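Chain X:
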Amino acid sequence: MHKISNFTGQARHGWERMTPTFGMSRPHSDMASHSLRRPHGAPPMTPPTGIDPTVNLSFNVPFSSTLGGPDVDDVLHASPGALQRWTFPEGTLEGTPVHNLPVHTSNVEALRRLCRQITESSNGRIEAVVFGSEPKSVASLQRRPQGLVTNVCITGEGETVRKMRARILNETPILLHLDTLSAYTGTDIFLLSPKLRDNDSAVVSSYGYASDNGLDQRFRVSIYGDMESAEHAKTRVLIMIDQILKRHVDAMKLELTMHTLVCGRTRKNIKLIEAATGTAIYFPPPFPRIFGYTPPGAHRRSEDEVYITGDTQEQIARAKQKLRELVMGVKIYVKDVIVNSNKIDNILLDRLDKVRKVMEMNGSYVLFPQLGSQRGLVRIQGTEVLHVERTVREIMALVRSTGFMLQAFG
């Protein structure tokens, strides 16, 4: 068992400051014999010898270009401009690829403008070019991959190139998601008519939402936007519905990295509090610091603000008190791992949903550096040593599946 620092006294006073740490990948077989005591500071870095040469860096910008808009016949109401962005203009040929929707083409064009701006403002030191192409057929796949592959190629001094990569990733609306609930922050909103109920959803009838004609009687709200905005929007719509039902709304502050720890494994602690007090508790998204993009004119949700709704203020007050009692009783155990910084970016772009499931199942928190920051330190926190160790193992298994290893120290 690796030694893990116990930060019991810091449960209510924040965390020790995370020092950006860099390191190289180490095979797992070497980790067992490596001393796992926590260093007092960041490991020293050896300054590079010689002049950083000109490099060419090519990377993918993962636009969700396979994401289609809603069925126009289902739309009862759309936010201003949303229908025009997510549907093809009249006269568009049938079979036109989804990635030619106005919203997707405008994202690519905005990326081209950003790269031109970077190139023109660098006085010839940096050149950034965007390449887009449809994926080629793969023999092992039964059908051709869909979507548009968008890559950026940057040429220039190594350190400047890496900084420009981080800037591009953090100023681009990557990782678009479709959610069934929506709200107001920098997103496109659609109110959709009820959908036909299939045989697999017959259980809906036990809740009184189905009718004899096979229609689910609930209207649907769909939102299109980047991942963080969609999460925020979903919460705002749920709160709006609570207010329509004449429920009271209040909020309390709780440090971000405490959220999943307080919730417990599979959110059991929060479920018990909600059942005991008759309230609904809404936590913010767990990764607000890793993506730098914010839609123009939009506002991010406060990362440490927890919303609580209830029929009475007394219910909300009881829920707040139970949350405070949970925080007071939390013991925090911490373990740090060092990962190749480029591989961290791969996790943030492709595997974040799986990391979130690992956190929820173990009641732990995984603290990543910001996308493109070239920092290699990942911190895992939990309320029990077993939960921290289990989270580390599952994160290690996840990153091994992408073809690299972790170097851990406790």
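Chain Y:
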Amino acid sequence: MERGTGGGRKPSFLNRLPERDKTRLTALGSRQGLRPRAPVLAVGKPGVDVVVLEKGHVKVTSTDHEARQVILDVGGPGDIYGEAAVMTRLPRMADVVALDEVVLRRIDAETFRRFLHENPETMYQISVLQSERLWNAQRERTNTRTPDMAVQIARRLLYLVDVCASERDGGWSVDAPLTQEEQAAFIPVSRGTLAKALKQLRSENVIATGRRSLTVIDLPRLQSLAEMT
């Protein structure tokens, strides 16, 4: 399945839309380019716009009770952010930050709400997206209680393959340039625990890693690990 111009086994938000809706939506608003680590959306701010990614990757972040950064999600081309605050008219609940060079469409709230009213299939897909994000958040709260960190790490790596990876030479390369610290914040585990787990996965030829790069070589094996209880 396609994900805009990016990767992933699951379709992006844009590629779930009818071609007519996708063409009209991506013509709205204004195009903006951002450098790596630039803020895209800020927690606590009002929902005055939504952003649709055309190029590059972002991380969605929050802080835990000890003020440590937690990465809630990672996204790439074709994904949309900020829609919840626009639809509920409530403050944003997380930061969205560019991971690499990002190009996006920024669409003001009133224009986006009017577009949803006029295009019910897009409205339906927004509802599906919000339900999926709620389901994923609840699943991660449950999964983090598992005593087997290898299982939790496998599940989160598999999620990255689903949303932001490209198939190359029989493997799946994660396109989002996450540092090991960011990978640990995404799972979430300590860097030491993650390093140990990645070393084990490398020794079993399940993955290969480099500087800000991770490739899943043996996807069936990773899926098997993720399904262990």
